[in-house]
Amino acid sequence: MTFATGQGRGFVMALGAVLALAVFAYVSSHVAWLLREPDLWWHIRSGQVMIETGHVPQVDTFSYTHDGKPWIAKEWLSQVIFAFVYAAAGWAGPLILSAAAVSFTAWLIYARATRDIQPVYAAALVILSVFVVQGVMVARPHILTFPVATGLAILLFDAARLRRAPPFWTLLLTVLWTNLHGSFSIAFVIAGCAFIDYIERARFSDRRTIIKWLAYLVLSVLVTLINPYFIQPYVIALALAGGLDVMSRISEWAPFTAPENSVMELGFMLAFFLLLKARAKFTIGQILFTLMAFHMVLSHVRFIYVFFLSVPVVLLPEIAEAVPVVSLTNWLKRPRDGLESFVGGKASAIAGIASVLFVAGCGYLLMKDRVVPPDKTAITGALAFVEKHRAADTALQKNVFNDYNLGGPLILSGIRTYVDGRAEQLFLGDFMKQYLDSGDSTGGAALAEILSDTSIGWTIFPPSDPRNANLALMPEWQKMYEDKSAVIYERKG
Fold first, then answer.
1. What is the pTM of this model?
2. Using CA atoms, how far apart are residues 367 and 219, in angstroms rounded to an integer?
């Protein structure tokens, strides 16, 4: 290795450390954005229950509308982890954990990219990817699978590219994914496309390796049964598929639409422009994986992260081969300029400083009351009002009819919900349709039918919700509380 090449490798390492730190700082600084997802509240409560009882739930205990009906915490491991970090560090715990997951994923993309392309281009790719997927970067279980999905794509497609058998230890990543989040079936897509990639590259020249790939594919399905619920997550997935007509009305399950996702649209346009411009020769496996990832986004916008965090690491080697100007090999052969020489020569020191700054940043976030969720999600004022008046107010002691997005904070506060973010299991079909209809501007009849249940004593919705206007017209209901985040009505008498 020449001195210039050594400095080049040092520059790559130093830039990677700085990039990972920058991504962590950027993500963790957006507290209101990262902690805006109300489902995190009930995920934490689920984890607390599992820690307290020592077993995973089998039936719902958080809502009164579906109390005792089958419900499983299919993301149990994420929920326990979130509960632990919340207990240890308050809201800073989920914030730091989520930002670290994104930062580690960014480093994985950069580390894989810089095996083929120049570090500056690799850094630009990471920045673009993080920017495009920031719409779904929220503290909830799926964010913990970002590095798992990216790492699995790297390892399996690299094995195919090298015409080797898949590393069987990566089945542990599939097991981990299965217990972290219900999107584990994406692992099958990655493995299947990587196998097709291998077949195209190696043809049928090595039957023993083909048998190993086939064994891996079978095992990748079987190991997903290593979870507390065995086959039940698959049953839920089938039930979900049958309720998509209603689920698509919930934003996170909605299909991709360009007007509402302009940043993602620009990201796709840039990605496809670069792919077409590169004129690289991709394998069928690579093309299928790209198309499958794109299809997932078109079906449910929440899967945007699969495309922008996993597809790049699958396609980059062929792009680097087709576009020599971005090639790492050609860059390493060139003499280093002044900045590259300085940074490359101080790589270890820079990486050390980045590590110290990371620890210092975590310490800053852990300072008392430094991290506070947005009140639009936390509804702290409304919950404080309920807590203060509940003992003396019989209406507040009854059941609540609540907004879907306020279910999480209610659950964490010990208040049983009418509906909450567990819609993919409990609130499918006509129940969810009636709830959503009651929130339309013309939904007075649906609202009245729901409120005919006299066990409901109070309601809580955001100020802009049409149900508040309809409640104001109902003589048996009166407004008891209002702030910028929530409005509470209660039944008179």
1. 0.93
2. 45
